[in-house]
């Protein structure tokens, strides 16, 4: 391939209306050349020539080559892709945390667009799009036959313009039609609230360029009146984003020079370790360290991290690091399991390929790929139904296997498990009575920040109070 140009590592899945984020800039300065398969290339040339001469309509060379590259890359795994001019531009814009679209992270399955997770405070979230939904039609266009990039382009558009989605949903006897209105998506990646005196709540919705700085500001606000007794970090339904953002968030709660994650692949550039140092989370920007003036108490405050099946990639890096270093108790349900790193390699003509180049590991060496983070305490979220039915990395076609464990689909059976009141173990919560059964089943969590009705959050606060009592007695 010759000398690679500037490239970036990313740890987020495909996104339709959500950011696919660049991370640490790396250089591959070695000249890697491999022998070309001459016979196979001759077959390719014959097919190319047959299409040029005999296809019912003329097709230009650029389209044929682009389609060939796209097919070659996209068939590797669910997260590798060819980025044409528009897709590459959208990726770069997405790192700023502001972009146009619907607000859903998506992948491809059986030729249909599969929803990984809707992003909070977006048209998709408000319109009732759910994890696991299969989008089979965009307005009057069937998704079958489209590439993921083509489908994403159709979902994007000018703000205030509508799009009708044809949706197949498990448990529904017939297809759904959901109309959403596009808007400029501005992701507020960090939110916070003092849940009650002495107990703070931090919510990270995605990992963007400004996430670490925003987190520092919110921590400062929570600690302005003194140290806290407990802190909840909510990573539920956070699809990931920037790798350096995950390192920075971890650095806010861990001691300096602590290992956060490591990556391993075939090239030397893919073999990296990332620590809680400014050079690893500032990504060489040379700016001021936003974590420099954090209150020192934040690294000692008892913590609980909330996760679920929608916590992916960068979220899993943070949860895994805090769990391995015994800095926090991880509470919730098993996470999505995206433990691979993608490198964006620019190509001529303002295009690029997004190629899976490494797996990433927790500080203790655990691979998250196709397994996820197993919580210390399993608490099913009654607002999200049966967690065992949720889409995960292991459900995606052509997903990478977990290289550390034979049973990459292992569940969290060994962890203590709490149930919501009225919920039978192993079953979804009972439907509420009163005529809203269909509307309430599997409903997304309330948009109220740190709601008093959030069962999982309440369990976290109760746990923190118990830890506080134990610390007082010591």
From TrEMBL:
This protein's record includes keyword Glycoprotein: no
Keyword terms of this UniProt record: Hydrolase, Protease, Serine protease
Cleaved signal peptide residues: none
CDD domains associated with the record: cpPDZ_CPP-like, Peptidase_S41_CPP
Sequence segments annotated as region (Disordered): 393-452
GO biological process: proteolysis; signal transduction
Single GO molecular function: serine-type endopeptidase activity
Cellular component terms (Gene Ontology): outer membrane-bounded periplasmic space
Domain PDZ: 88-156
Listed EC numbers: 3.4.21.102
InterPro entries noted in UniProt: ClpP/crotonase-like_dom_sf, CtpA/B_N, PDZ, PDZ_sf, Peptidase_S41A, Tail-specific_protease
Gene3D superfamilies, A to Z: 2-enoyl-CoA Hydratase, Chain A, domain 1 (3.90.226.10), 2.30.42.10, 3.30.750.44
Sequence ranges of Basic and acidic residues compositional bias: 393-408
Top-level taxon of origin: Bacteria
Family: Belongs to the peptidase S41A family.
Name under which the protein is recorded: Carboxyl-terminal processing protease
Organism: Rhodocyclus tenuis (Rhodospirillum tenue)
UniProt lineage: Bacteria, Pseudomonadati, Pseudomonadota, Betaproteobacteria, Rhodocyclales
């Amino acid at each position: 391939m010759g000398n690679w140009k500037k490239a970036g590592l990313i740890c987020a899945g495909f996104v339709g209306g959500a950011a696919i984020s660049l991370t640490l800039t790396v250089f591959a300065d070695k000249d890697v050349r491999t022998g070309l398969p001459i016979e196979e290339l001759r077959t390719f040339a014959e097919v190319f020539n047959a299409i040029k001469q005999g296809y019912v309509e003329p097709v230009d060379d650029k389209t044929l080559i682009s389609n060939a590259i796209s097919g070659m890359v996209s068939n590797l795994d669910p997260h590798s892709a060819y980025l044409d001019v528009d897709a590459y531009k959208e990726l770069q814009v997405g790192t700023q945390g502001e972009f146009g679209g619907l607000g859903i992270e998506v992948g491809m399955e059986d030729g249909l667009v599969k929803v990984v997770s809707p992003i909070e405070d977006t048209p998709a979230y408000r319109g009732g799009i759910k994890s696991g939904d299969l989008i089979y039609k965009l307005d009057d266009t069937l998704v079958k036959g489209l590439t993921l990039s083509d489908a994403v382009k159709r979902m994007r558009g000018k703000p205030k313009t509508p799009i009708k989605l044809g949706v197949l949903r498990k448990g529904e006897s017939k297809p759904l039609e959901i109309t959403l209105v596009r808007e400029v998506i501005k992701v507020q990646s960090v939110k916070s609230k003092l849940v009650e005196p002495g107990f703070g709540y931090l919510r990270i919705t995605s990992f963007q360029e400004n996430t670490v700085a925003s987190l520092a500001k919110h921590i400062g606000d929570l600690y302005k009146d003194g140290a806290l007794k407990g802190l909840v970090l909510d990573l539920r339904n956070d699809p990931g984003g920037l790798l350096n953002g995950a390192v920075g968030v971890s650095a806010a709660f861990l001691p300096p020079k602590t290992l956060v994650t490591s990556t391993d692949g075939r090239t030397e550039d893919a073999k990296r370790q990332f620590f809680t140092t400014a050079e690893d989370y500032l990504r060489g920007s040379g700016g001021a360290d936003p974590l420099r003036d954090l209150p020192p108490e934040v690294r000692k405050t008892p913590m609980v991290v909330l996760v679920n099946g929608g916590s992916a990639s960068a979220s899993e890096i943070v949860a895994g690091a805090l769990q391995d270093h015994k800095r926090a108790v991880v509470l919730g349900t098993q996470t999505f399991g995206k433990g691979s790193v993608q490198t964006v390699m620019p190509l001529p003509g303002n295009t690029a390929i997004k190629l899976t180049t490494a797996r990433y590991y927790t500080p203790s060496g655990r691979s998250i790929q196709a397994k996820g983070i197993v919580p210390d305490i399993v608490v099913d979220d009654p607002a999200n139904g049966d967690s065992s039915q949720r889409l995960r990395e292991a459900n995606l076609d052509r997903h990478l296997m977990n290289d550390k464990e034979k049973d990459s689909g292992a569940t969290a059976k060994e962890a203590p498990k709490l149930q919501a009141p009225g919920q039978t173990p192993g079953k979804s919560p009972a439907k509420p009575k009163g005529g809203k059964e269909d509307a309430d089943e599997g409903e997304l969590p309330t948009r109220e920040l740190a709601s008093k009705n959030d069962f999982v959050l309440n369990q976290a606060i109760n746990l923190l109070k118990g830890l506080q009592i134990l610390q007082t007695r010591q």
